[in-house]
Amino acid sequence: MSQAGRDPTPPSAVPTPPRDIVATLFSRLPPALHWTGEPNDWVRTTRPGQRLHSFLEGACLDARGDLWLVDVPYGRLLRIDADGAWHLMHAYDGEPHGLALRPDGSFAVADYRHGLIAFDPATGARETLCGRVNTESFRGLGDVKRAPNGDLWFTDPGRSSLSDPTGRLFRLRAGETRPELVLANLPYPNGVALSPDGVFVYVAVTRGQAVWRLLADAPDPVFPMAGVFAHLSGGLGPDGLAVGPAGQVAVAQAQAGRAYVFDALGDLIFRIFLPEGRWTTSLAFSADARSLLIVEAQHGAVWRAALPPF
Predict the structure, then answer these.
(1) What fold does the segment set 23-306 form as a domain?
(2) Domain ranges of the chain
(3) Please, what sign has the CA dihedral across residues 156, 157, 158, 164?
């Protein structure tokens, strides 16, 4: 079935060559919040021989415009206020990778160890939204986003790759407790995001160096038709994703120290470079969408890129 009739509205102007932007430092994790204990299993497996004071992911703005992050190996949820001050909001025995704000101010958390959980900043309470699928544990969740209709879309990469392309994409429909399997053939599905109208779903396929796109409500009886929205090269591959109000798609390129912004048709409009660090993991548009906040995990920093009109 052709999807031509569902394509996003093209930009009014003829595409121009991409513009380069150098990001500036917004804030850095203070030494008081550096982890000083021994490396755990996550660190030993993903960064052999290294000692990490943090590994920041999951950029998500709350209703006030403060930036929330997760510290993957040490189970911490952090908030950065408008002045760049850091606050440890919660710590638990988990491996959180992604955050999605819910209407009541709580967060859905994609946790590699525990599955999809909910966290309430007002009370500190956690509850399991779904901890497994079809009586089996997830491989290890990667990211979560909330659709305009309230559905939660989340990735389950585990240790999948090109040699084992069995990562999965799930949807938990609003009001349901059993997730729905959408795709099961991805070489490390990582970041996930939706178009502003909720029509399209974007998935960062890290080990495939591509961002895939599919219809959220496809007519296909089994798996929806998925295609490549954008190809990358260099570094490890695409990691976190964010979508702006005009449908622009921002992509953090893991282990490359840069990010990209594509328009709704997949044309590259901005290339963003960080002056320091290569572990670009996640990103979020500012509340006014005039800048992009980019998380760099190697040095525990958040960078800001001012975005010109396009």
Answers:
(1) Neuraminidase (2.120.10)
(2) 23-306
(3) positive
